[in-house]
Design brief:
With 253 residues, the protein is α+β, with helices and mostly antiparallel strands. It folds into two domains: 12-124, 2,3-Dihydroxybiphenyl 1,2-Dioxygenase, domain 1 (Roll), CATH 3.10.180.10; 139-252, 2,3-Dihydroxybiphenyl 1,2-Dioxygenase, domain 1 (Roll), CATH 3.10.180.10. It is 17% helix and 45% strand. The chain has an eight-stranded mixed sheet, with helices on one face. An eight-stranded mixed sheet has the order 10-11-12-9-13-16-15-14, with helices on one face. A hairpin with a 3-residue loop joins strand 6 and strand 7. The longest helix has 12 residues, at 22-33.
Length: 253
């Protein structure tokens, strides 16, 4: 198993789901990925942990603001959420949630980049991030889809110090976000079929053993397929909208 007890600064380390129906979302993702649910009790504000074999892989909690859509959020590990958010503002981003302590587990902030994509920072304390990643049943990739890739390159270089390696892939340009020599995520131009006016967004991918079988399970539980199973050099992927409207990707690596 790909187990982690820490994440380098500038690396996505955690993902969680905000949903209007936590019970329904718990049941859906448990059926898709075989996850268990660890309820953190009354002091958690309804937040729970998804686990795989007792290892934490993702979080789930209720919506916290009126009009907030159901969505998965990517968290990037940082040394200081406050200074990172200051860099966000200097680079033209907007604070959604100012840095705040989450009990004794860490300090977080949430922001929107200039293209409209929401992403978060995680300054770890007792909770370092996902115990498992980069394998079936755990998050394995985080991808920005935007209409302004050049603007995003400049923004995330200032905020996280990311480099950007762009190449041709399957007849399109694809960018890998780089921390040194390591790839920490991806970026692509937003597909034309996405309605005009849709803001940029970060898409979380989870590993699966069989993409087609996972799509069949998801649609049987009320999900909608946004991108049919397709083979790419990295593996076979699909994009799904869960029954509450939260989008996510799956891929057999």
């Amino acid at each position: 198993m790909a187990e982690f007890d820490s994440y380098p600064v500038g690396t996505p380390s955690w993902v969680d789901l905000a949903t209007p129906d936590t019970n329904a979302s718990r049941a859906f993702y448990s059926a898709i990925f075989g996850w268990e649910v660890n309820d953190l009790g009354p002091d958690s504000g309804g937040y729970s942990m998804f686990t795989k074999g007792g290892k934490q892989v993702a979080g789930v909690g209720p919506l916290t603001a009126e009009g907030q859509p159901a969505a998965w959020t990517t968290y990037v590990s940082v040394d200081d959420s406050g200074s990172t958010l200051a860099a966000v503002k200097d680079a033209g981003g907007t604070a959604n949630v100012e840095p705040m302590d989450i009990m004794d587990v860490g300090r977080m902030a949430i922001f929107t980049d200039p293209g409209g994509a929401v992403i978060a920072t995680w300054q770890p304390k007792s909770h370092k991030g996902a115990d498992l990643a980069n394998e079936s049943g755990a998050f394995c990739w985080n991808e920005l889809q935007t209409r302004d890739t050049e603007g995003a390159k400049a923004f995330y270089a200032k905020v996280f110090g990311w480099g950007a390696d762009t190449s041709e892939m399957g007849g399109m340009k694809y960018t890998e976000w780089k921390r040194g020599d390591s790839s920490v995520g991806g970026m692509m131009e937003m597909p034309e079929e996405i309605p005009e006016g849709t803001p940029a967004f970060w898409l979380v991918y989870f590993g699966v053993d069989d993409t087609d079988a996972a799509v069949a399970r998801a649609t049987g539980l009320g999900a909608m397929v946004l991108a049919e199973p397709t083979d790419i050099p990295a593996g076979r992927f699909a994009v799904i909208s869960d029954p509450t409207g939260a989008g996510f990707g799956i891929i057999k690596l």
